[in-house]
Amino acid sequence: MDSLPNPSPLATRLRNTLVRYHGIADGEWRVAKKTKDATVWRKPSEEFSGYLYKAQGVVEDVTNRIVDHIRPGPYRLDWDSLMTSMDILETFEENCCVMRYTTAGQLWNIIAPREFVDFSYTTSYEDGLLTCGISLDYGEVRPNFVRGFNHPCGWFCVPLKDCPNHSLLTGYIQTELRGMLPQSAVDTAMSSTLANFYSDLKKALKS
Question: What pTM does this model have?
């Protein structure tokens, strides 16, 4: 298992990677799922043999409050139905930490519960915020969990220009679930999970 990284260069590299994803031309994406709350696209990942997913939808709230619900902290566990536990293992500065979290089984438990250890970083982006993360090979894997791996992931949240109390939330997710799984099951789960993320988040912000 690796030791903890130097946070500053990792944060810079992570931000630059997410900004590059954010600039990928529309024509490179294929629609994977569409709901009233969000559209999910995908394209082959450059990092591993699965997909990079892009999700986008308008959320009725201000940027800071939305990002506070997404990034590591007290809100996330309350509303994210997929997340079953979360511990902050290390805090480097206010906007930078290492967290360990677990996720519930999915697809009638075809996908067993997973554990992740992620470096998380939140920074300003244009008029809004970017909160992003990447998994680390750090710490012992707990029994009854498969250790998954998040390649560079993140959420851009910017206020709508003509309606600043609404925000455009765009996520980029590429999760390697690991373990013996049919790829089709993973692809189905990812698209649904991302669409549900928006509907769950909207409910949480209204409550």
Answer: 0.94
Superfamily of domain 28-206: START domain (3.30.530.20)
Residue 144 has pLDDT above 90, yes or no: no
Signed CA dihedral, 94, 98, 102, 106: sign only: positive
Greater confidence (189 vs 22) lies with 22
* Alpha-carbon span 89 to 97, nearest angstrom: 8
Q: What's the count of helices (H) and strands (E) in the chain, helices before strands? A: 4, 10
| Contact assessment for residue 98 and residue 89, using Cβ atoms and an 8 Å cutoff | yes
Q: For residues 11 and 6, what is the distance between their CA atoms, to the nearest angstrom? A: 9
Q: Which residues contact 51 (CB under 8 A, 6 or more apart)?
A: 32, 42, 43, 44, 45, 174, 187, 190
Farthest CA pair distance, the chain: 50
* Domain range annotation of the chain: 28-206
Residue 3 has pLDDT above 80, yes or no: no
**Residue 141: half-sphere exposure toward Cβ, Cα within 13 Å:** 14
Contact 134, 16 (CB under 8 A): no
Name residues whose C-beta falls within 8 Å of residue 160's C-beta, 6 or more positions apart in sequence.
Answer: 58, 166, 167, 168
What is the C-alpha separation between 168 and 56, in angstroms, rounded? 7
**Each residue's pLDDT tens digit, 37-61:** 999 999 999 999 899 999 999 999 9
C-alpha closest to that of 18 among 101, 129, 92 = 129
